[in-house]
């Protein structure tokens, strides 16, 4: 068989590879603590589950509109007004089976040979994978430890060329937990006025997970880029619905038809019952979200304290999401070497920083979407492994 050349450019998400290896070791009888996968360890709230069951019993078994049922798009619009203070017409919202689909649609719209797309590094690995799949040039935006893993607007703007089609922003961020300060977003948006040909994809899937009383700063708050801004958000992280596969995109009016056509050509529509669960998630009680985020905040402080007790590690306090991204250069080991050692010899699954880009060398990603007991035991195992 002769595959298209683009298939050789398609990357992967290493967290799932490490998960598979960790699962195999556990099946062999090894004690494995998994701090690698980015998935809340909370169940989906029962009111959301019941809404899906009710929808199935009520006969919600057929196709829905490609852009999502109106009730869900209206619920998203209400949520946008409540949490971001932005009025969005439901017709600009496209419901998709997971946040990655909005990402795929945006990159597919703008990526082709000769184009350039800027993306955060260290960053979610699928950004670069999809950019290169389209044949576009992937241009990394360096996220610096010294800046709390926020970008410099000046550096980003300096990387824009006439070939730049799309800029990807992710805050709060995977894998670093970094949060871009509003002042830096102000500078970025002001500078983008010089580059009207550049669209922006703002990945805000962790928007509800900000700490220390710092409110989430959304790019949707800047009307001057509304006509070229794509927002990515969804239910997976906030409502512990990773397996439900449900996300949304808010698109400029000029791109909604293109996004909807891509939906028709790929997945037709999102599972009907899942969409009614999404309505309940947004419109129902939010106390489960508040409890989960408060628990993550406690674990955030715990894991940073524990990681900083490990010889050769230093870890900044993440401002959002549920990841810690310690610098491990003091161990004298490469990121991949330490990742493999910790899994195979210490029974702790983590992800090498190089899985998230060239600027990830010297770092390891920990997910603190695990119990405090698991975090403490994992860090104790690492200290023992390193002879501390």
Automatic annotation (TrEMBL):
Its cofactor is pyridoxal 5'-phosphate. The keyword Transferase applies. Residues 31-382 form the Aminotransferase class I/classII large domain. One of its GO terms (molecular function) is transaminase activity. Keywords: Aminotransferase, Pyridoxal phosphate, Transferase. Transmembrane segments: none annotated. Gene3D superfamilies: Aspartate Aminotransferase, domain 1, Type I PLP-dependent aspartate aminotransferase-like (Major domain). SUPFAM superfamilies: PLP-dependent transferases. It catalyses: L-aspartate + 2-oxoglutarate = oxaloacetate + L-glutamate. Its EC number is 2.6.1.1. Pfam families: Aminotran_1_2. The keyword Transferase applies. It is an enzyme of class 2 (transferase). Belongs to the class-I pyridoxal-phosphate-dependent aminotransferase family. This is aspartate transaminase. It comes from Benzoatithermus flavus. The lineage of its organism: Bacteria, Pseudomonadati, Pseudomonadota, Alphaproteobacteria, Geminicoccales.
């Amino acid at each position: 068989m002769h595959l298209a050349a683009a298939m050789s450019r398609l990357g992967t998400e290493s967290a799932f590879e490490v998960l598979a290896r960790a699962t195999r070791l556990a099946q062999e009888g090894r004690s494995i603590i998994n701090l690698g996968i980015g998935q809340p360890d909370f169940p989906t709230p029962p009111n959301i589950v019941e809404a899906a069951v009710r929808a199935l019993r009520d006969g919600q078994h057929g196709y829905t509109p490609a852009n999502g049922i109106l009730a869900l798009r209206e619920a998203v619009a209400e949520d946008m007004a409540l949490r971001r203070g932005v009025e969005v017409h439901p017709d600009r919202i496209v419901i998709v089976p997971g946040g990655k689909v909005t990402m795929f649609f945006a990159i597919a719209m703008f990526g082709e040979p000769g184009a350039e797309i800027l993306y955060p590094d260290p960053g979610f690995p699928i950004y670069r994978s999809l950019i290169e799949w389209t044949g576009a040039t992937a241009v990394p935006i360096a996220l610096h430890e010294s800046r709390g893993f926020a970008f410099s607007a000046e550096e980003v703007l300096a990387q824009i060329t006439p070939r730049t089609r799309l800029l990807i922003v992710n805050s709060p961020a995977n894998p670093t937990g970094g949060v871009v300060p509003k002042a830096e977003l102000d500078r970025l948006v002001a500078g983008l006025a010089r580059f009207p040909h550049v669209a922006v994809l703002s990945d805000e899937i962790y928007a509800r997970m900000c700490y220390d009383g710092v409110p989430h700063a959304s790019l949707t708050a800047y009307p001057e880029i509304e006509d070229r801004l794509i927002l990515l958000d969804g239910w997976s992280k906030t409502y512990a619905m990773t397996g439900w596969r449900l996300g949304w995109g808010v698109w400029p009016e000029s791109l909604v038809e293109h996004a909807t056509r891509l939906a028709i050509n790929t997945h037709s529509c999102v599972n009907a019952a899942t969409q009614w669960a999404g309505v309940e998630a947004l419109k129902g009680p939010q106390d489960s979200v508040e409890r989960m985020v408060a628990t993550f905040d406690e674990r955030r402080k715990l894991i940073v304290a524990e990681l900083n007790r490990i010889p050769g590690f230093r870890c900044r306090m993440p401002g959002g999401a549920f990841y810690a991204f310690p610098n491990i250069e003091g161990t004298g080991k490469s990121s991949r070497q330490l990742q493999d050692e910790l899994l195979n010899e210490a029974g702790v699954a983590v992800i090498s920083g190089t899985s998230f880009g060239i600027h990830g060398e010297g770092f390891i990603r920990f997910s603190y979407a695990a119990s405090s007991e698991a975090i403490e035991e994992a860090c104790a195992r690492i200290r023992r492994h390193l002879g501390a």
